[in-house]
Structure formats: C-alpha cells, structure tokens
Amino acid sequence: MEILDELIFTVLTQHTSDLNAEKAFKKLKSVYPNWTDVVETGNKELEATIKHGGLANQKALRIKSILFEIHARLSNFNLDILKDMGIEDVREWLISLPGVGPKTAAVVMSFALDLPAFPVDTHVHRVSRRLGFITSKTTADNAHPIMEKLIAPTDRFKFHILLINHGRRTCKARNPLCDKCPIVTNCPSAYQE
Ligand code: SF4
To answer: Rounded to a whole number, what is the distance in angstroms from the first to the last CA of the chain?
Structure first.
C-alpha cells in the first residue's frame, strides 16, 4: 500500500474489524479517485461513503483534518519524503498529524515504510500485559517505547504478528484458552482470567 493509503486505512480500522475497514476503504477509493476529491467533498457525503467502518462522523472529520494538514505541510499528498527520514523523525512527523497516535504511526512505519516500529493494538496490548511485558496500568500508547526497547528491531514485525495471532486464537479477551496455550508455563497470568 502507498504510505498515505496505509495511514487513511489505519484510521478506518480504529474501533472496528479489519474487514469493515477494508470495505470502507475500498468504497472510499472507488468514490474518490484522488485525495483532493476527499478534501473537497462534504462531510456528510464522506461519512456515507465510509459508513461500513463505523464511527463515520468522527473518522470523516479525522481523515479530512489529516489530509488538510498534509497538504498544508507539503502542498501535495505524496508522503515519499518520509522514506528519507530517520525512524524517530518519521514517528514525530506522523504523530503531529491530527488524530494520529503512536499505534497509527507505528502501523504506517511498520507496514508502509518497512521501519522497525512495534504497533500495540488491542490484542498486542492485552497479551503483553498478561505475559508481564508491561504492567497492568500501562496504556497501549505508553507501551510502544517499552516494547520497542524489549524487542530487537529485526524481530519487531514478526513478533507483532505473532502476538496478534496469539491474541486472536488463544489469549482471547474473554476466557483465554490457557489450557491450550503453548506458553502457559511461562505466563504469570495463566488461569487467572
Ligand atoms: S496462559 Fe492464558 S493468559 Fe497466558 S498467554 Fe496463554 S492464553 Fe494468555
């Protein structure tokens, strides 16, 4: 995915499933062939286009604000300039966009720029907490620098995918399947939830 496509898609994934976000993103791209069209469309029209992604009113405003800000900074919508920046500069650039937090920035860095960021989504946050990588009070936003310190840069992408899959299949939010968990003997939270 292009960098800006990944950024807008990640905004659409907030508080919904990837499937719903994919539907909304596909519709967005088919209705608006370029980003200028999105900026110029009415809020209600944009909301209707992305309704499959949920929270359409908030997400429509967020998407427009991000696009306005990018255009104000670059006079275009080409984020290739990020390819020539260091990892912390890229993170700062993305997080300073409206409505973009550490997770969204890390997803874009990891999936669109091949940078060793470690996105902490809801599954990664829960599993990391249960395994004791972070404390029970550590927020997902605050977990990013902690997890990045714990994991070697070359392992971050793979480990992110492993934790998501483990959270979806075994270490579920409700009723984690501890009796089927391959790391039960290493888990300080086994059979506690
Ligand atoms: S033992 Fe249970 S709580 Fe611990 S990682 Fe496995 S499924 Fe999650």
So the answer is: 38
Q: Which residue range(s) make up the domain with 19?
A: 3-112
Q: What is the CA radius of gyration of the chain?
A: 18
Q: What is the pTM of this model?
A: 0.93
Render pLDDT for 145-190 as a digit per residue (tens, 0 to 9). 999 999 999 999 999 999 999 999 999 999 999 999 999 999 999 9
Listing DSSP states for 72-88 in one string gives: HHHSSS-GGGGGGS-HH
Q: Is 172 in the pocket of ligand 1 (CB under 6 A)?
A: no
- Tell me, yes or no, whether 103 and 131 share the same domain: no
Asked whether 65 lines ligand 1 (CB < 6 A), one says no
CATH of residue 39's domain is 1.10.340.30
Q: Which of 128, 131, 178, 180 to mutate to test the pocket of ligand 1 (most atoms within 8 A of CB)?
A: 178
**How far, in Å, is the centroid of ligand 1 from the Cα of 181?**
6
| 20-40 residue pLDDT tens | 999 999 999 999 999 999 999
